[in-house]
Amino acid sequence: MLILLIVICVVTAVFRPRFVEPGNLANIIRWTSLYGVMGIGVAFVIITGGIDLSIGSMLALVGCLFGVTMAQYNLPPAAAICLVIAMSTLLGLVYGLLITKLKLQPFVVTLCGLLILRGLARATAGGSSVGGFSKLGYLINYEWGSVPVPFLPWINEGYWSFHKWIPSRGDQPGHFALNDAGERIGLDWYDWVPLHPPIIYLAVIAVVAAILLNWTVFGRHLKALGKNEQAARYSGVRTDTMVIISYMICTCLAGVAGVLFSIDIGSVMPSTFGNFYELYAIAAAVLGGCSLRGGEGSIIGVVIGTAILRVLQNSIEMWSIQELEFAVVGGVILIGVIADEIARRIIAARRARQEAALLEKQTA
Fold this sequence. Notes:
The structure is a single chain. By secondary structure, the protein is mostly helical. Helix content is 67%, strand content 4%. It contains 14 helices and four strands. The protein has a two-stranded antiparallel sheet with strand order 1-4. A two-stranded antiparallel ribbon has the order 2-3. A hairpin with an 8-residue loop joins strand 2 and strand 3. Helix 4 (77-100) packs antiparallel against helix 11. It is globular. The two termini are 41 Å apart.
């Protein structure tokens, strides 16, 4: 998947040099961070073999409640944030109980949740948009630092040259910019890309999630549950508890994402806010290596999968083919998943041959 991300970036930069403008790269990083929070949450559910289709509606409800509690009930922002995240986590508990105790299918439970939460969001907002997030803009837009990235000026301003290039306009052909002495204006070999708080949020959540998934008993039990629930139960794994916790993690991070998206966008329209976000979160997790059959997944893979989707959407805007957005995104996801599955099978077959050869050697 990392190769696919690099290919998309290189191809877009070659034909659309504006892609590597520092401001554009900063926006890609910011939106990748916001979507990545959702993707990590849904990864925990997918690893158990479940699914959550209500994330978009969850974002809408969280955003509406967040704005209403601050505007109408004068709740401090910190208290409002804690309240809506606690509410979203509680909804995950409800999902988990319905799935484990009543044995309902995750698809049905979360599909109903999608409809119910969207309706509650509309009722909370009274059919109008909810605002009042501008005072919290520093949580998203504050520029806390920057990182030097080599060769950006050569691509962006030089159009793949060491000197500043003026593109053609009308009848005037493109030409190199000249100084007063008639010499070409040289470009620096690097540029600074600004960084904003969302990258910190994603980094912290990703590190904690990776530790939880890869270096704890909880993570091992979660993967065992996804591979074979019955075998995990017979091995002493409390499968119902694991499923409930995974849904609580998913909805908790959806609540965090809802708060961040509300602040970033500045207003919440309950009928449209968060539409299709659950599909992007699921697609990012699947692109990142999470198997819909359960039992497999990595956090770094989810982050890379999210970056692929955001870079791809940005590339579509650069190419001005927004009408083909869903077709292009769907096609790339399908190609990526097929390639990843083929690679997995090749690796598995090679490993099986090596194990068979080793066994034959030991018995000889």
